[in-house]
Known about the structure:
The complex is a heterodimer of chains A (227) and B (252).
Chain A: E1 2-5, H1 12-25, E2 30-34, H2 42-51, H3 56-80, E3 84-88, H4 91-100, H5 105-111, E4 120-125, H6 128-137, H7 156-177, E5 181-184, H8 190-205, H9 221-226
Parallel strand pairs in A: 1-3, 1-4, 2-3, 4-5
Chain B: E1 16-21, H1 28-41, E2 46-50, H2 55-67, H3 72-96, E3 100-104, H4 107-116, H5 121-127, E4 136-141, H6 144-153, H7 173-195, E5 198-201, H8 206-220, E6 235-237
Parallel strand pairs in B: 1-3, 1-4, 2-3, 2-6, 4-5
Amino acid sequence: MIVIEGTDGVGRTTQIERLRNWLEIQGHGVVETGWTRSELMSNLIELAKEGNTLTRDTFGLLYATDFADRLENQIIPALRSGFIVLSDRYVYTAFARHAVRGGNAEWIHGVFGFAIIPDMVLYLRTDVESLVSRVISSRGMDYWESGMDMHLGSDLYDSFSVYQQRLITEYERMAEEFKFEAVDTVRRSIDDIQEDLRKRIEPVVRRTRKVDVSLLDPKPAEAKRER
Amino acid sequence: MSPMKSYGQPHQYPGRLIIVEGIDGSGKSTQLQLLQRWLVSQGHTVFFTEWNSSRLVKETTKLGKRNRTLTPLTFSLIHATDFADRLFYNVIPPLKAGMIVLADRYVYTAFARDVARGCESGWVRKLYDFAIRPDLAFYFKVPVDVSLGRILSGRAKIKYYEAGMDLNMSQDPVESFSKFQSKVLEEYDRVVEEYHLTVVDATAEIDEQQELVREVVSRTLANYQPRWKDGQAQVLRGGDSVPGTLGAKSQG
């Protein structure tokens, strides 16, 4: 169970795509799971966001529902079957969003108490300046990623900067609390970051033993001749 | 902030929150309706809200039932999500406005039902830590066979989740209902003790029960100062039918 965490627009998706490719080339089965991507909840979260009506605690619970559904129907079955699960965001995203909105940490931790502890949390570290230019030059700023519900600034840009700074601060705090593996992304190329990620993941996914070819069926020639 | 095995705080709002609990077929909704009539006739402004009526819960549980993907955990969380939404939109604003809020089912439903489904009791109670405590909570206590009789002889058929059909206790809805609701009743007994709910014998005559209910409510309202009581009594209903009636602006 490998988690890639980091704030909006830090480049998680690109990195995960490449990690998956790399792992599959090595012969590993890979299942990807992503925030709000459960069958049960994805439509509803979008619905709720459109309406712009949910409050902080409600959002926390909605995220927990989505996560629980993916955990039970996707993540745990995949892990049991020996897949490597690559998770785009994890419970820490809910913790961070809850915290910057002034929520009670103990409560939200308790809500997600059913979550399993990942083998590794890779945290893509950035700063607001790098984030701003990256987001503007790619897909633009979005209402929720700018924390517009919090009324932090008069326009999208101001709000984005303040909100993302708060999120980053919270991520940094959690990096210590939950022992994230921090991977710096500032002024580094995608390839460079990918290289770094692979180096850290490699020991976790390394197969400890070689397959014994003699166990193959059909049996080797001598065994057949004995019959 | 608050103790582990507890939820919520007593509220400081000018309004009053009165809730009813009980299994399906306990007659709690009838009693709440009668209470509402009386309160309105007394000139109070009453805000009525019920759980399970929201589009969020209806659509997701329908989906879950069709695909059989809802587990006790997701079932519990969906209801908590819906409850939170309802609390912030349909309970707190009218309480702040000084109204009497009547709620058909409250957190205790989750404490009994989700735990009977196998969720950990401490976890469920902490889940609802954000909820406020009602000023008065009635529990309409009824044996399973009586509630089953009322449901079968009356209105609708047994509901899938109320019968705990997802738990595979029995293929027969009636048998499954009996088994599951017996567990729910056991949990309700624990809840009653823990949170001091006012127990009403729901096998008694309707008017007898209502008399008792009104008596207890009168006492609870002894120090209640209505903001307006000018003969313009009315009932406001929460839920999806009247979106944004109240408090749409007051939420941050």
